[in-house]
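thread: overnight batch results

M.L. [08:02]
morning all. the overnight job finished for the chain we discussed friday. pasting input first so we're all looking at the same thing
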Amino acid sequence: MINLLPPMTKQTYRYARRNRILVHWITAMAACLIGAVLLVAGGYFYLNQQIDSNTKQIAATNRQLNAQDLGKVQKQVATISSNLRLAVQVLSKEILFSELLKQLAKVTPDNVVLTNLTIEQAQGGVDITAQTADYNAATQLQVNLA
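M.L. [08:03]
and the structure it wrote out:
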């Protein structure tokens, strides 16, 4: 095909085709730009909504903790903890009376009968009353207990 158009018209057609391609590219770029702006705006809106939701949840949790009187609970926990420490301390220093009775039975001579055993809490002492058949057994019990 032979193009017999004047050079000026040919040039105008060529630039018209280029302009049409450029308009398509500009339209596509504008659509991408609008999509990106919508995406950023949606993300911003979603983040603000999540921040508000978390702020409300934190406030509700704080109100609930204040309603439960956290300070009072902490004082109770401290009291229980100190009582537990005291119990552990007392139990670590306790005298096992079953062991004391076993040792007392070992050192008691044959002719001696224990009639009374008194444990005093105030002074921490033990009073032992015994009956013996003779003087030698009583002396032997005193020596064994010493």
